Records
---
Amino acid sequence: MKKASIVQKVIILAVYALLPIIFSHSYQLRLLNLLIFFTMFTLSSNIIFGHTRQLFLCQGALVGIGSYISAILPERLGVAPWIILPVGALTSAGIGSLISAVSSIRRLSIIFMAVLTSSFQVIFGELILGLRHITGADEGIVIRSDILRGLIGANRELVYYYLLIATLFATVIIYDKIVNSRVGVAFRCIVEDEIAASFIGINVVKYKVLSAFISSFLFGFMGGLYAYYNLYICPSMFQNIDVHILVMLVFGGMGTLTGPLLGAGAFTLISELLRPLGPITTLIFGILLIILFLFFREGLVVHLKRITGQFFKKHKLCF
Amino acid sequence: METILRGESITKKFGGFTALKNVEFNIKRGEILGLIGPNGAGKTTLFNIISGAFPPTAGRIFFEGRDVTGLKPHQICKLGIARTFQIVRPFNNMSTLDNVLSGALFGKDAVSDLKDAYERSLSIINFVGLEKKKNKLAKELTLHERKMLELARALATNPKILLIDELIAGLTPLEVQETMRLIGKIRDELGVTIFWIEHVMRAVMGLADRIIVLAYGEKIAEGKPFEIANDKRVIDVYLGGGLIE
Ligand SMILES: Nc1ncnc2c1ncn2[C@@H]1O[C@H](COP(=O)(O)OP(=O)(O)OP(=O)(O)O)[C@@H](O)[C@H]1O
Ligand SMILES: [Mg+2]
């Protein structure tokens, strides 16, 4: 890793770690926690859509699979939640990989992939409703197992916050390693030209499935963590989040590291401001996504770099 | 000399249309074999079959004695068969260096260490004469430079045989000369066998050891350049020699 990139990460980590000093009210801490969840979802979406252009419109289902497994299994099997967490993540990863394998072996166009994955999202919703005796259908499930059971009494929101930024930073480090490795080069070639990539020895299916595996694992893992954090889940939580995640990703900047961080931050702020509007927000975000895809596909990070780059050029400064 | 690549009665049909009909070919290690023929003769289709873009309808391809028919493009590449595209397709938003690097990282004898791969890529970039453009994005290069880049990326995969699909169409006379010298160097200095499609007859005649002529999906002639130049059927196909300057 380059020195500049280490400095950058240390600064970002420091900012996150110090945020609770300013936002110490438990309502604010809850917002911060939701921010980290959405940042993680966006990072994960970045791996699959930003880096290999596989359109997964079933991100909610992949999160939900992790959530429901983590909510249901510990009590039923009598095992600790932290053992179930990776089980949920691996289940999501397996299903995500399967979807990716089918789509890339059959060379589905992005339209057909959208149809395939949103059908899966619908099936997931129906399954949750159908398995009423296990999932509680629309009423949802109250979760009694908490991974932080020993810490009850301490400031629960704050403890979760630090657990979440630890997870975020572990993810950022791993993401950085992947993107700057041979695998990252394969991803870039695939985004540029899949056909040309295959003729220089890149196994396109393998790298697409790998990206789906990593991304879906993260979705499932964060879904499980969300269940334990929120202590309650219901089906509506996993609907429509694809639009939100994609807005954060495209707005921030696909294929970059700071893009998802900025995108999720801006998104959390905006949705907090729009909250009084109720269900209309999804509509607004849908329209926003269309506008972003049409006019702002490069994302905030690229635009910021261009503006600051011009600024530094004009003033004959360099980094 | 031993055979490196052999095609056994290759037939390819697209729906009801027969693009290739029982085509046989045989390349010796270290040879430059030219492949010529009028537009739509099936030349690119033959390269697509060899490189694994799609399987033949009938027939087999043998590489170093091994049946490679129906293998996927990445598998073919890893065995040591590289290709360029008639319509260039470099990774446009990547630098020249990164384009070549990707070949070095994934082709035959793929280098897994990034540093080693960089070194190998730099030497290949020098070899094709793109050293001044190594940090430029591929989309900023001229057509000639992009063709050289495509060649460099293919060479970075460390092939035993290189399939070149029209390298000099659209180039200036000076660029044509440079490119011909380069193709000679690829064979002589890197020891890579070359199967070469080209429309510019004079270039192929000057460089190839042997030439195969395709027309309407069938092989109509095969032989040394002077034999091809005097072949009655070849002259007929090329409208009474209009194309043989
Ligand atoms: N994927 C395909 N599907 C259908 N038809 C095809 C396909 N590829 C090639 N053809 C047809 O097969 C014939 C041979 O095409 P090919 O590209 O191999 O010709 P070529 O000899 O390379 O010609 P040129 O000199 O113009 O490059 C053409 O009639 C073309 O339209
Ligand atoms: Mg052709």
---
Amino acid sequence: MTQDAPPPLLKLRDIRKSFGTLDVLKGIDLEVAPGEVVSIIGASGSGKSTFLRSINAIEPADKGRMEFEGWDFDFDRDSRFFPTDRQLQALRSRIGMVFQSYNLWPHKTVLQNVIHAPMGVLGQSRTEATEVADALLDRIGLYDKRDASPLRLSGGQQQRVAIARALAMKPRLMLFDEVTSALDPELVNEVLQLMASLADEGMTMLLVTHEMSFARDVSSRVLFFDQGEIGEEGPPSKVLRAPESPRLQQFLHSILHDDLRTSTAKKGLIQ
Amino acid sequence: MSEFTHDVLVYGPGFLSAAWTVLWLTLVTIGVSWIFGLAAALGQRSDMRAVRSVAAFYVWFIRGTPALIQIFIIYFGMPQVGVRLSPYTAGVLALAINSGAYVTEIIRSGLSAIPAGQTESSLALGFSPRETMRTVILPQVFRIILPSITNEALSTLKNTSLLSTITVVELTLYAQTLISATFRPFDFYIAVAVIYLVLTTILTQLAAFFERRYARLY
Ligand SMILES: Nc1ncnc2c1ncn2[C@@H]1O[C@H](COP(=O)(O)OP(=O)(O)OP(=O)(O)O)[C@@H](O)[C@H]1O
Ligand SMILES: [Mg+2]
């Protein structure tokens, strides 16, 4: 690291998590610099989602330390640095999270979805929150849908609203968990483009993805999760182009194979 | 003057006031039963085992015993252990405890119909579990359970007739006093039935109104 490298925004040390006897995270260390975009790839069940969920602590880790925005938490229950409920809520409000299944609230309009947390968590006035929300909805091209029910939107539109909802909290870090996996292929790009533009603007992002081209083009670093550990990490040119471990080679091979299969299937449909 | 007009003029005011009694007893009971039901439904999901057990016992006991016996325990039984309640208080309390157990089950099924992602997205934005329940989950649950909660409200309304047994002057008891003086059971029980029909229809319409309002929102 060069001398004037900024201090990391997020610092994780030895993050561990088990479900019963199943060790899902076996000691993850990670530092993320401000503005960095880190992609996480890995086989199903390797702990990618569990890792993201432990970072914003909707399911806190069992062990490990986390430094973020002046907080220094120890997730060991017995530690006196274990976060209080209020600290956990504050932490979550500073970290945006976007899910595979959008999880918009169907009983609220698009606009209400976006202003709910700024008003309820940050205490913004309705006018203030609406101003921010309108600008965000305008940016994602859905201003004219602000009073519609989210259920009337396409999957891609819903996911963009979910991203806007997270952005309205002005988070320092955004977590994306396979946010395009539930989308029809033709809707994937509108969401990826929005994420790429966020990355361009310097948003710090951690994303779990199966979109290898997106990982290659947008991220500064790629982590390969392998059975609850970081099996390999580095710039995309290295991890995706010149994998070292046989397990990563095998994983990339299977992904490539899937891609080929789906694109052949698509061709079949067109003909 | 026809006999019917005569009857309406003579007995109408009494029926009206008895119907009014039924109406407010029902509304208060429904309100209290929702509180009991919500408390027990949330209790069933508590982290604390003791709380879960109490909630489970409550539902088990109430659903497994007749409403009339529950009313008798509270009105006739409690004085023996030093708690003496007016017929009205005992009546509302007994019916609300009774209906609350059914409301518990209704809310429980409503809660389980809401995907976990709804809670997670709210928690992930920094809301507390309590705020999440209040502003994200319960409004959705309420919409889902509206039809079954309406049915339960209708049961409560009709169950108020059981309170005639503990001297609450509602429609049934009022009719019985008239019958013992006039020996016209057919006329007066039909009158009671008609008034109940009017009340249940009003309640159903009210629920339908809410359902339409919600349907527009979605
Ligand atoms: N709440 C839970 N209770 C029990 N086991 C869980 C729980 N959450 C995850 N697991 C298990 O932990 C392991 C890792 O799950 P995780 O969802 O983190 O994997 P993933 O890498 O995100 O996989 P995918 O690519 O399929 O999303 C899996 O074996 C899963 O079954
Ligand atoms: Mg996952």
